[in-house]
């Protein structure tokens, strides 16, 4: 077989110094060209894998961090090695034959990892889709299903990596010992991460909240968007997503606003001391019971809460749907203000009275400038 490592031009007529280094320079150029070709081949294959992976997701943002996104650079490396190995054998490099003998095992490992990525992605998406359908049709809690889908995905990928390593000659016993030692080292180094996983299991088992609930955790309020073994995602009203590690979630106070289907609304209104309290309380009760989204109207309650320094505080309590709490509160607050204006019921605000005695302002304690 013709070797491409021999310069294709005659160097016998060249000066001795140039003729001596010309073969080495030519070999270097061939090697650099081989690396460039292998690199671009891997980059093209990586782009093809990512393009195919994006087509499997309806939302492009979900592709980031997915199995396909992680598999793309691995595929690029394998294609680079394949092209480099084949090119080295074709061009006549001495190490080409050794690399060719390595590839049957590498191909087997690639098939195992690629199949695991496809299986893990398919199972993860299928289980999550099943959970969404069950929740939409039968109101089944899909939190545990989504959490289990994440666990299954990581288990499949872990088993595939171990199996692929066996293809390279690692004995099962030695591999288990290595994994155990590595696992212990990782456990000591990543204690916080393991705490998050343990807390995630507690959240999945006891379910203080589920996907779709409106919660308040650690001062962050929003809708539970996703629960994984490592963190909980909360989507806020302005469409920002806050990621909280599960150990922080489990160790903090959890306020679940939508655990039950209804919430009790508490509104406070201040009125003047000269107000007809019976009339004001009647207005509050009538407005609440007239609202179409107020539930259990027989339990609507209005009464005097406290006597303040400059006003009387009235309190209105009514049951409303948990997911419409904010809207009903806004509607009733607006209606009460308009009804009080029509009934000429004054909503007072603090007043300050300044008395002047013998040229001294009782407000400031300084001489009155008017004197």
Quick description:
The protein is of the alpha+beta class and 371 residues long. 55% of the residues lie in helices and 15% in strands. Strand 1 and strand 2 (220-227) form a beta hairpin.
Task: Pick out the low-confidence regions.
Answer: 364-371
Total beta strands: 10
In whole angstroms, the N-to-C terminal distance is 117 Å
Percent range for helical residues? 40-55%
Largest sheet: 5 strands, antiparallel
Mean pLDDT: 77
Describe the fold and architecture.
- The protein has about 375 residues and is an alpha+beta fold.
- It folds into 3 domains: about 15-180, no CATH class; about 200-255, SH3 type barrels, CATH 2.30.30.60; about 260-340, Alpha-Beta Plaits (2-Layer Sandwich).
- Helices cover about 55% and strands about 15% of the residues.
- The chain has helices at about 15-55, 65-90, 95-140, 145-165, 170-190, 190-205, 245-250, 275-290, 325-340, and strands spanning about 215, 220-225, 230-235, 240-245, 255, 260-270, 300-305, 310-320, 355, 360.
- The strands form 3 sheets. It has a 5-stranded antiparallel beta sheet. It has a 3-stranded antiparallel beta sheet with strand order 6-8-7, with helices on one face. Strands 9-10 form a two-stranded antiparallel sheet.
- α3 (about 95-140) packs antiparallel against α4.
- The longest helix has about 45 residues, at about 95-140.
- The protein is elongated.
- The model is unreliable at about 365-370 (pLDDT under 50).
């Amino acid at each position: 077989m013709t070797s491409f490592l021999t310069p294709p031009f005659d160097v016998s007529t060249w000066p001795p110094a140039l003729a001596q280094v010309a073969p080495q320079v030519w070999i270097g150029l061939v090697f650099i060209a081989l690396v460039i070709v292998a690199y671009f081949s891997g980059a093209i294959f990586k782009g093809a894998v990512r393009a195919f992976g994006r087509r499997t997701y309806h939302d492009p943002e979900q592709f980031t961090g997915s199995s396909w996104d992680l598999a793309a650079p691995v595929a690029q490396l394998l294609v680079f090695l394949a092209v480099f190995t084949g090119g080295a054998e074709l061009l006549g490099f001495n190490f080409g034959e050794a690399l060719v003998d390595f590839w049957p095992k590498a191909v087997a490992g690639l098939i195992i990892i690629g199949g695991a990525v496809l299986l893990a992605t398919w199972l993860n998406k299928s289980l999550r889709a099943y959970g969404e359908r069950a929740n939409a049709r039968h109101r089944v809690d899909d939190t545990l299903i989504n959490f289990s889908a994440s666990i299954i995905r990581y288990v499949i990928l872990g088993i595939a990596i171990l199996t692929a390593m066996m293809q390279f000659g690692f004995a099962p016993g030695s591999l288990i010992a290595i994994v155990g030692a590595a696992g212990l080292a990782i456990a000591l180094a990543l204690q916080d991460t393991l705490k998050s996983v343990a807390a995630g299991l507690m959240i999945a088992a006891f379910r203080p909240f589920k996907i779709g609930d409106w919660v308040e955790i650690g001062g962050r309020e929003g809708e539970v968007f996703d629960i994984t073994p490592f963190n909980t995602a909360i989507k806020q009203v302005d469409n920002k997503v806050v990621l909280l590690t599960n150990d922080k979630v489990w160790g903090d106070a959890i306020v679940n606003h939508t655990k039950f289907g209804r919430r009790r609304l508490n509104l406070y209104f201040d009125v003047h001391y000269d107000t007809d309290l019976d009339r004001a309380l009647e207005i509050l009760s009538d407005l609440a019971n007239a609202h179409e989204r107020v539930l259990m109207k027989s339990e609507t309650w209005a009464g005097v809460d406290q006597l303040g320094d400059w006003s009387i505080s009235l309190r209105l309590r009514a049951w409303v749907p948990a997911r419409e709490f904010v809207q009903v509160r806004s509607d009733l607050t607006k209606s009460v203000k308009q009804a009080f204006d029509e009934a000429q019921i004054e909503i007072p605000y603090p007043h300050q009275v300044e008395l002047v005695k013998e040229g001294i302002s009782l407000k400031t304690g300084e001489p009155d400038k008017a004197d």
